[in-house]
Amino acid sequence: MTIYLTIFSIMAIISLFEEEIKKNTYTRFKILSFTSLLIFIGLRFEIGADWAAYLMFFNKDINLQILMHYEYEIGYSLLNYIINKLNLGFVFLNFILSLIFLICFYSFFNKSKNFFFILTISLPIIIFIYGMGFNRQIVALGFLLLTLNYLLNEKYVKAFVFFIFSFLFHKSVIIFLPIFIFHFIVVKIVTKYNLHKYLDLKYLFLFFLIILFTFILLYNLLGMFILNINDSVQYYYDAYIKMQSRGFYFRIAPILLSIIPFFLFYKKLGLSINELILYLIFIFIIITFFFITLLIGPATLFDRLLVYFCIIQILIFEKLYLIIRDFRYKVTFKLIVLSIYFGILFIWLTFADHRNSWIPYQNLMML
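Structure (tokenized):
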């Protein structure tokens, strides 16, 4: 567990002084951090709760035609098949998946003046848990970040292309198709009819209640419908709705924590209409997930979808930091946030049900 805490601490120290670092040195630090993380997560050995399951799939001796109809998505299956046939090994597959994710992650946040602050608070959940345990979803998340980037910059063709790439690695991202369409429509309506005043907190709260009750109604109707259909759909219902994920509340806690100051200061964050509406959609969905799980328990479905929505906490904490003017308060804010995420990492490494899948850490270069 020491190595995880050490990496976090080194990145945290850099983040406290990053605004004072010269541009050339800052770029070198970025390259060094990228290379270090690529080696750390890309060359890991027998790390992650699903290591054995993915290794078993990698070693299956089946032809490409059968593979395309297998349970895993086409993008992952095809990459898996190619690397297997080239005899490059399962670790090399993980290396390529990690490389794709890190390129997407660094590209998305590259222009930030607080890159190491972002990177550090991403370590516990996004990089260590998801990046080292969710092989397909982490690549889907990476491509989704690029999708969001182009969406916010109104480059819709590029956004669609990277959304397809994301879908090819995990079909669960299909949930974002109606979200993006809804976002596009709302932005156009708000802009065209000058409805900015309805983005006030009281209207947002009313809108959230409508969404929440609609979601609960649809969930109940869906549950009754599923009981009367075929066994394959019933299997997914049992696996993702009835099955509980004890880590859900642990992973959603920092997101909920970031949402509180967001609503207190969202008008001061300097968000464009595009950004604000996307943030609000993400936040409403996350809060809806939370309240639904209070009623039915932390279903695995919501925990899996949280992989994509967790990025909102990073965006919010960075925006909150940027509105602070006094240097002392800026340092204090960073120290508080970094301490919270250090605590999250320590608690996970100490008490998580699957912590033994990450501890002790093993790397191909150390064997």
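DSSP finds 17 helices and no strands in the chain. Residues 1-169+329-367 form one domain.
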